[in-house]
Amino acid sequence: MKTLRNFTKGIMKENPVLVLVLGTCPTLATSTSVVNALGMGAAATIVLIFSNILISALRKVIPDKVRIPCYIVLIAGLVTMVQMLVKAFAPALDEALGIYLPLIVVNCIILGRAEMFASKNKVWDSAIDGLGMGVGFTLALFLMASIREVFGSGTFAGMEIPVLIDNHVSIMTMAPGGFFVFGLLIAAMNKFAKHKPKKTEFGCEGCPQAELCGKAKKEVAAHD
Amino acid sequence: MTKLIIILLSAVFINNYVLSRFLGICPFLGVSKKLDSATGMSLAVIFVMLMATAVTFPIQKYLLDPNGLGYLQTIVFILVIAALVQLVEIVLKRYIPSLHQSLGVYLPLITTNCAVLGVTILNIDEGYTFMEAMVNSLGSGLGFFLAMVMFSGVRSTIEGSDIPKSFRGLPITLIAAAITSLSFMGFGGVIENLFS
Predict the structure, then answer these.
(1) Under an 8 A CB cutoff, do B74 and A175 touch?
(2) A71 in contact with B at a CB cutoff of 8 Å?
(3) Which pTM was predicted?
(4) Which of A24, A103, A213 sits opposite B117 (nearest CB)?
(5) A75-84, A202-211, B114-123: the lowest-pLDDT one
(6) What integer is the mean pLDDT of A192-196?
(7) Cα–Cα distances in Å, from A108 out to A70, A96, B183, B189?
(8) Residue of A26, A76, A207 lying closest to B75 (CB–CB)
(9) A220 touches chain B (CB under 8 A)
(10) How many of the other CB atoms lie within 10 Å of CB of A48?
């Protein structure tokens, strides 16, 4: 039961992209086509599951004071492995994702889950949490990429759609379309989600640096 | 010289890190609410980008590549950036307290800023020379600065408007970002033709 809850919370209630608003950079950048989105989602999910497992297994060994650098090294190692595998077995995907593949290292979702969940929970729960969050991330990316690809290029995963192919709006696949669709999706989530997401300006609380950031904001406010 | 100017201008306007490459979106949305915090954050980013490039470029060219360790790039770069940010903070605090006062609070946030790691990796991928890499970093930092400052102006206008309930907060900010990034698309193709 608890396992199921750990898995499903990442998909809807705590969706990393649409509710917690983490990992915005890869979401916007790789959602230009469905194939790219699924590739990015899969790569991030693999890193997320293994980083959660490793960090959870090592949670009693890693000293509290240097935990963030330790997590970053572990995550960077995993990302390097995934990067080499993608380069070897899916060179086209490597080409399409480009810089965003190594940048999974600084994806807030992964560091955020390490800090918020894996460092406090057992290995099995952490693995399921990583899987759930990864699936949630992939689904959000897939949703966004579908909208952008269908309207922007008139295709779905490369297949042509009869009427839209002649009337595609290319701006949707470019940068402004990314911001626009993302804004609309979050607005729709606010409107229709059963539980109301907490009223936050930006999904900072999931970020491992939220404490520092809050401090920064306070100091700026005091400075004024 | 012309090539350096082209690199600089295209990094600022055409391949703007925030608005067309989607790097560094977190600080762009998180810290752009007020003009002075936007300025402080961007200055810190420019500073760290230049420092990071100056350190990581020689490491890649003279340490990793000759020894066939190119695959360690990601790990080495992120560690170098993290260590560098700590070091810069300590040095600033000790020797230039006034600068530390204005930039200090933003420095720790930069470690996981994807724009900084992004610029160091892109410099290697594009095959730039050291000088070109430094110019590209400067341009990217300036582009980040421009986007942040422009966007903080846009946001201060949104503050006072009447917005539909479900759009309040982040959604309207993203839509405003879409329009801001639309304005940057006007620069496409300008730079290539500037010197021909």
Answers:
(1) no
(2) no
(3) 0.85
(4) A103
(5) A202-211
(6) 64
(7) 15, 22, 28, 34
(8) A76
(9) yes
(10) 31
Residue A195 region by backbone torsions, left for phi larger than 0, else alpha for psi between -120 and 50, else beta? beta
Compare CB distances from A28 to B22, B33, B179 and report the shortest one's residue: B22
Measured between CB atoms, does B150 come within 8 Å of chain A?
Answer: no
Contact B171/A at CB under 8 A: yes
**ipTM confidence:** 0.84
Q: Find, among A112, A134, A143, A131, the residue nearest to A206 by Cα.
A: A112
pLDDT classification of A210: cutoffs 50, 70, 90: low
Question: CB contact, 8 Å: B50 with chain A?
Answer: no
**Residue B166: what are its φ and ψ, rounded to 5°?**
-75, -10
Distance from CA of B102 to the nearest CA of A (A): 9
Please choose, from the candidates A72, A78, A57, A81, the residue with its C-alpha nearest in 3D space to the C-alpha of residue A111: A72
Q: What is the pLDDT of residue A57?
A: 93
Please compute the mean of the pLDDT values over residues B169-187 and round it to a whole number: 87
Domain boundary assignment for chain A: 2-223
Query: By three-state DSSP, how is residue A12 classified?
Result: coil
- pLDDT exceeds 60 at position A224: no
CB contact under 8 A, A83 and B74: yes
State whether residue B72 sits within 8 Å of chain A by CB.
Answer: yes
| Chain-chain contact of B25 with A207 (C-beta, under 8 angstroms) | no
pLDDT of A204 > 90? The answer is no
pLDDT in tens, B53-106: 999 999 999 988 888 888 888 899 988 888 888 888 888 888 878 777 777 667
